Amino acid sequence: MSGSNNEKHLPVLADHSAKIYDYTIYKIQEMIAGLKERYVEHPDIYALEQILNFYKKDEIVITWDGGYPMVDLK
User: Fold this and answer.
1) What's the mean pLDDT when you consider all of the chain?
2) Which of 36, 42, 63 is closest to 51 using CA atoms?
3) At 45, phi and psi to the nearest 5?
4) Domain map of the chain by residue range?
């Protein structure tokens, strides 16, 4: 095509009301809630709360292995 600049154009999404949920935040919150339901105190509760806080501040990267969060510093 003459005069074409070969740029790819993405479709414009007219509906901006879709919500995107972060599975990592959801899953860790569920893990914390489950531990709090079963135990009055459990050492993993504090650890998971700290992991969640650091993740929300974008200070760590979380990958999942066997259903458990694995933490790496950025």
Assistant:
1) 86
2) 63
3) -60, -50
4) 23-73
